[in-house]
Write a sequence for this structure.
């Protein structure tokens, strides 16, 4: 995700200094005009706004707070924007560490995937002070389209992203159960999908993933193993705030089972295969 | 539901003979021009097409197959249309009993509620032979708008309706978990809903029931006790065809708990109160 986002920032005319723990993307983005920061600390020393895009909470903690990290190179008045999808609790912890040095921060997770990143069409959900959000907004606009300031609290963007992943996963499970029931009951599954899209059961998931299930098209898209990670964040956030997420937990377990069976790199719509396998339908 | 549907048939110019186990609706519809059949048998004797609209499977079994019922008054070549939401298994049983006497039948459950019935805007999902569907289509068009022939098998319409109720219920649960997590995490719930509607989590449920949850508007709408009945049908259908519906079963249990706590007559969007009560939020 980081590479196409960086290329869009260059295209929008921003001066860019980059670093990645793997060399490949740095070489490519440097060829397009970015400077090589050499380390996260080096990027922070040479930038007004620092953007992180990393797989998970421990990665962000290490790259921002660890040795040769962003915090070491950061100065008061600077802004650090974390666009990774991580735990809101870790977002708060990082915002506090940066804040102690006078550094501003935003959490700004995205949805829209690789395609959204390439097309500069990401949805961006932002937590942190509104004034900081407004200062960074033109930068977000170079990478995304549906950009919403969720709240002033650090982690508010991550909370919205967790909510998004809960709804998407659980709706896929709902569609998977319904279409498997239709199939095993001998109904015309395509007609059931069509009839239901005209009513109260309508959703983008029934439309797009319902079609994927009909077409047996489980090439990612968004991989089950990544969605499982995001549901883990949602469940941890629920535990921290005392919200038992029973449906989400069930879908998390189903994704765990899919991963254990070697299907973690299929698109998340392949949850239908979980319901099907329980129903005696062969993959 | 039966009364406004009958009134729409009269408005469309159909000659109508009616019967109801309660007197009130018969008096009203008779005042608008319908004849009183005196019994279900009496209606069948005087009609070319017989329509049933009843609460649940045992009611349909009794009114169609029981004493002074439709079957007693029916003749070969006639069509019986059951628009109730009942078990597909019972639909098949009734179609077989009618078929043994040469009577055609369709199962044609609806969605759209009281308002859809009054506005002649019901969605109608139809199972049964296509030729019979086409014969009855003008009558359906006097009562509904999104009319889909799901399949030739008796019960196919009921299967589609069960799929609809699975998706609607489970999506409400997904939205309830997400918005409760947002609320307890201190996020701006209205902004979370708004941000998510722009992306892959979009659904009619997030839009309309998400707004209901924000507004604390739990006046029905569609009552929890009726949706619980429909999920019971879905679970029975799943058992009969070997499809374990784990997410649906969870929502069914949640609705059971709501009913036990005296909330069965709230709108089904009040599932949010179930998640909230587990999270220590007072009603």
């Amino acid at each position: 995700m980081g590479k196409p986002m960086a290329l869009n920032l260059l295209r929008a005319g921003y001066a860019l200094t980059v670093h990645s723990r793997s060399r490949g993307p740095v070489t490519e983005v440097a060829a397009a005009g970015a400077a090589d920061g050499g380390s996260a600390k080096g990027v922070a020393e040479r930038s007004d706004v620092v953007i992180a895009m990393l797989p998970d909470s421990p990665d962000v903690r290490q790259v921002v707070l660890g040795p040769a990290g962003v915090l070491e190179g950061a100065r008061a008045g600077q802004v650090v924007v974390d666009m990774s999808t991580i735990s809101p609790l870790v977002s708060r912890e990082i915002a506090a560490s940066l804040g102690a040095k006078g550094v501003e921060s935003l959490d700004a997770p995205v949805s829209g995937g690789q395609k959204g990143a390439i097309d500069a069409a990401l949805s961006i959900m932002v937590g942190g002070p509104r004034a900081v959000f407004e200062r960074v907004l033109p930068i977000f606009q170079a990478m995304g389209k549906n950009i919403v300031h969720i709240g002033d609290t650090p982690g508010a963007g991550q909370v919205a992203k967790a909510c998004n992943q809960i709804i998407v996963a659980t709706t896929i499970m709902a569609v998977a159960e319904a279409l498997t029931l239709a199939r095993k009951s001998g109904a015309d599954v395509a007609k059931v999908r069509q009839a239901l899209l005209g009513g109260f059961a309508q959703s983008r998931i029934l439309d797009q993933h319902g079609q994927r299930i009909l077409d047996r098209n489980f090439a990612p898209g968004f991989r089950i193993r990544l969605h499982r990670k995001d549901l883990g964040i949602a469940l941890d956030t629920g535990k921290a705030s005392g919200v038992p997420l029973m449906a989400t937990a069930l879908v998390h377990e189903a994704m765990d089972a899919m991963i254990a069976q070697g299907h973690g790199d299929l698109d998340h719509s392949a949850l239908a295969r979980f319901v099907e396998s329980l129903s005696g339908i062969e993959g």
In short: The first helix of chain B runs from residue 2 to 11.
